[in-house]
TrEMBL record:
Gene3D superfamilies: 3.40.50.2300
Domain (HTH luxR-type): residue spans on this chain: 146-211
Keyword Transcription: yes
Record protein name field: LuxR family two component transcriptional regulator
GO biological process: phosphorelay signal transduction system; regulation of DNA-templated transcription
């Protein structure tokens, strides 16, 4: 039986390139794709792929949240391979916590990507042991705030909250995270709602308090 794969990336040309690469391997079949987090969460449960290749940064969310959502909604859950253009410790931390089986930069070679899909389809892991050790150490030390409101935020929302605390505007945050200003505005509205605030100044004060608690 071929390995079935679902692709999530907001760039069509990237999805086409990855699909052609995987299909050429002979033992891998791409059964579906999506350009947004919402599309992926809606389509993956019905397709039940063996592997889901998820872009970390998306117009309407992030691949880490998609990984968490589909792994709780699909049984057996697909092995999730996070694919990103940027090295990001927080996203890596979130990916490990969400149950991802692998985390690769998009600079990976075609041969290595095919090998990665085969490895995680067989139940293997591509997470760097050192990175996993760092996550476990953070959990042991309790570096993650215990506030359930903060725990409800996605990794991307946490990054944006931190930048709000730094005094950045939506436009500046967008430039920092390579997001459209409208997308940042949607994230800010979402995180304010989750935290129970109505103004970003309240969120900034809250984030500053978290930093103080954790020695930041």
């Amino acid at each position: 039986m071929p390995i079935t794969v679902f692709l999530l990336d907001d760039h069509e040309i990237v999805r086409r390139g990855i699909a052609q690469l995987l299909e050429a391997a002979g033992d891998i079949t791409v059964v579906g794709e999506a350009a947004t987090a919402a599309q992926a969460v809606a389509r993956i449960p019905a397709l039940r792929p063996d592997v889901a290749i998820l872009d970390v940064r998306l117009p309407d969310g992030d691949g880490v949240s998609v990984c968490r959502d589909i792994r709780s909604a699909v049984s057996p859950p697909p092995a999730c391979l996070m694919l990103t253009s940027y090295s990001d410790d927080e996203a890596l931390f979130g990916a490990i916590m969400a149950g991802a089986a692998g985390y690769l930069l998009k600079q990976v070679t075609g041969v290595d990507l095919v090998g990665a899909v085969r490895t995680i389809a067989e139940g293997g892991s591509l997470l760097d042991p050192r990175a996993t050790a760092v996550v476990l150490e953070r959990l042991r030390k309790g570096d993650e705030p215990s506030d359930p409101r903060y725990a409800s935020l996605s990794p991307q929302e946490r990054r944006i909250l931190s930048l709000i605390a730094d005094g950045l505007t939506n436009r500046q945050i967008g430039a920092e995270l390579f997001l459209a200003e409208k997308t940042v505005k949607n994230y800010v509205s979402s995180l304010l709602h989750k935290l129970g605030f109505t103004r970003r100044t309240e969120a900034a004060v809250y984030a500053a308090g978290l930093r103080k608690e954790n020695g930041g």
